[in-house]
C-alpha cells in the first residue's frame, strides 16, 4: 500500500503517519516527490485493510494498494498459456483444457 500525502502536509503529520504505519506492523519508506510525499508501507499485504484507516489522519490524501488483485493468476506473472486436465467418466481419457484448443 502507498499513502499519498497532501501537498500541504507538515513534518509532524508525516511523522505521525509513519509512526502509525510502524505500529500496524509495516515498514514505512518515505518518498519525497516534487509536489507530494508518499509513504510506501512494506509488509504483508493480507493486512492492508488496517492501512485504509490511515485515510482519516491529518495530512493524508489517499491510501492506495500497489499490488493488483489476483496477481498470481494474471498474465503479468504467468505469461504462458495455462492448461489443466479434467477427469472424465470412468474408462475415458482426461480432457486437457486451455492452450490452443477450444473446449465446449
Description:
This protein is α+β, with helices and mostly antiparallel strands. The chain is built from 2 helices and 6 strands, in the order E-H-E-E-H-E-E-E. The strands form 2 sheets. Strands 2-3-1-4 form a 4-stranded antiparallel beta sheet, with helices on one face. The longest helix has 13 residues, at 11-23. The radius of gyration is 22 Å and the shape is elongated. The two termini are 41 Å apart. The model has no long low-confidence stretch (mean pLDDT 83).
Notable characteristics:
four-stranded antiparallel β-sheet; 104 residues; two-stranded antiparallel sheet; alpha+beta
The total count of helices amounts to 2
Helicity range of the residues? 10-25%
Computed CA radius of gyration, to the nearest angstrom? 22 Å
Distance between the termini: 41 Å
Strand order of the largest sheet: 2-3-1-4
Any low-confidence stretches, pLDDT <50, length ≥5? none
Average of pLDDT: 83
- The structural class is alpha+beta
What is the number of E strands? 6
Global morphology: elongated
Largest sheet: 4 strands, antiparallel
Residues in β-strands, percent: 25-35%
